[in-house]
Amino acid sequence: MVSVLVVNDQSLQRLALRMLLTAEPGLTVAGEATDGDGAIRASAALRPDVVLMDSRMSGAAGIETIRRLTHPAPRTARTPGFPAPAEEAHAPRVLMLTAAGQEAEAWSALRAGAGGFLLDDADPAELTAAIRVVAAGDAVITPGLTRALIDAVREQHTVRPLPRTAGLGTLTERERDVLVAVASGWSNAEIAQWLSIAPTTVKTHVSNVLAKIGARARVQAVAFAYESGLIRPAA
């Protein structure tokens, strides 16, 4: 059973999402939150598998919420109104519902640790499928948004390196090739055809790359490729 925390400041939208998700086999709504602080408290107490977060919360405060959700500090104190949290910090996957034309905000959310992006006009089947994929540890991002994100990065004049960029030196030449392809928005099938290897081998390379660079999902690998200097954004 995949548990979901719904974060949305609109009561009708929260109700609609709850009705949709609870009616879907294998999914359950662990709770709701209306803002970032509430999402952080509820996540620590309820330990959902996925936090479904509306893109309208992806401003500066929303980005900080994503960062705190995906990189939580250890908690030992009890949160009033919730069961006592476990000693180990819980880091859920974050799936963003993103409006078309908000690629810059989506890029910031990606850098903060979001694991998936879905356009907010997606149909119910796409949403429930995306939640399952993100919960399983994979990334979800629509092809059109992938290209838009890459274009948004290329339009930046500078890219600030991440502290973890030392991980680039641990990659083999083949793994670097795979990372470049991933950062270019290629699917595993396209990478397999380009490198003349099996798709299962590509999947193994991608998993190895994620482990070495300290990324939790494929979309974070895109950020790493640019911020490590492996791919240079256009001037």
Description:
The protein is α/β, with parallel strands linked by helices and 235 residues long. The chain folds into two domains: 2-153, Rossmann fold (3-Layer(aba) Sandwich), CATH 3.40.50; 161-227, Winged helix-like DNA-binding domain superfamily/Winged helix DNA-binding domain (Arc Repressor Mutant, subunit A, Orthogonal Bundle). Helices cover 48% and strands 13% of the residues. The protein contains ten helices and six strands; from the N terminus they run βαβαβαβαβαβααααα. It has a six-stranded parallel sheet with strand order 2-1-3-4-5-6, sandwiched between helices. Helix 2 (36-46) packs parallel to helix 3 (60-70), helix 8 (188-195) crosses helix 9 and helix 9 (199-213) packs across helix 10 (218-227). The radius of gyration is 18 Å and the shape is globular. The termini are far apart. Residues 157-165 have low confidence and may be disordered.
